[in-house]
Amino acid sequence: MTLQVFLAGGTGVLGRRIVPLLVAHGYTVTATTRDEAKAALLRDLGAVPVQVDVYDAAALRTAVRESGADVVMHQLTDLSGGDFAANSRIREIGTRNLVDAALAAGVRRIVAQSIAWVYEPGDDPAAEETPLDVNAPETRRPMVEAVASLESAVRELPEWVVLRYGMFYGPGTWFEPRGQRAEQARSGALMADADVTSFVHVDDAAAAAVQALEWPSGPVNVCDDEPAPAHHWLPAFCRAVGAPAPPQDDAPRNGFARGADNRYARKRLGWTPAYVSWRDGFAAYGISR
User: pLDDT higher for 288 or 94?
Assistant: First the structure.
């Protein structure tokens, strides 16, 4: 029997990559968009498009039920305008509505997008068992609380995988030569400091989402092999996007900016990123490191 996948967020940066991978595996894909004009894109990628707003709980329940989904995949974000409050809202309310729709339709499994920079402070890159930073300072706490809400809701299904992605880079992201971070780098607005980031190329992130359909329940850090301070990665990024060398900040690292450990995904689950380090990924932009 062909697996039926309901993909919420089909036209996002990851969704556009995930759909063809699912189709290539022989899965039937129903993918959502809020924009009627983007339905043709989903159809061209091989999905059955459905126009629905994740905040319309009744319509979402109907869409999931009528899709006959065996699995729900949650790749919804709201960052196109750089509005972090809107993204937190979709993590909290959008996820709640999507989980309720999945439960009502009898779906047993969900794969959901989360992030790998909400762990509590520590000295080393965080593993999956590291607690989330629920006691974060006020400026950081809403993001952590939204992620915790998402992950708690997802756990209500019998089978669930939370993909704690590193920072996305590659085509269509803020970290591409024409993206927001590249523009900030060219203006000198990004500071090379001691804070550690774990990156993941969007193609590797999409591949992980498809593989996660067969992974055991639990959270998984999906990031490359080289967590690094901005002292290291930002100069390489600036060279890759044609920006001047960044200004330096010698302040101590924020305790929560520790990066994430990908050994569980690599060693236990068999996920192998094509870009094992941001060094290779940035170099692929076509400008020498």
Answer: 94
pLDDT at 288 over 80: no
Element (H, E) at 148: helix 141-154
Residue 258 DSSP SS3:
strand
| Average pLDDT over every residue of 57-67 | 98
**Nearest Cα residue to 91 out of 147, 155, 164:** 147
26 pLDDT band (50/70/90 cuts)? Answer: very high
Tokens of 168: 């996305």
Tell me the residue ranges of DSSP E strands in the chain.
Answer: 4-8, 28-33, 48-51, 71-74, 109-115, 159-165, 167-169, 196-197, 199-201, 218-222, 228-229
| Cα 206 to Cα 7: distance, rounded to the nearest angstrom | 12
For residue 236, count CB atoms less than 10 angstroms from its CB and return exposed for 0-12, middle for 13-18, buried for 19 or more: middle
251-276: b (≥16 Cβ within 10 Å) or e: eebeebbbbbbbebbbeebebebebb
Instruction: Give me the residues paired with residue 74 across strands.
Output: 8, 112
Residues 287, 284: Cα–Cα separation, whole Å: 8
Question: What type of residue sits at position 40?
Answer: A
- 241, 177 contact by CB (below 8 A): yes
Of 238, 129, 117, 214, nearest to 168 by C-alpha is: 117
**Residue 286 class from Cβ within 10 Å (0-12 exposed, 13-18 middle, 19+ buried)?**
exposed
Return the number of other C-beta atoms located less than 10 Å from residue 144's C-beta: 22
Average pLDDT along the chain:
95
pLDDT of residue 2: 87
Cβ atoms 196, 258 nearer than 8 A: yes
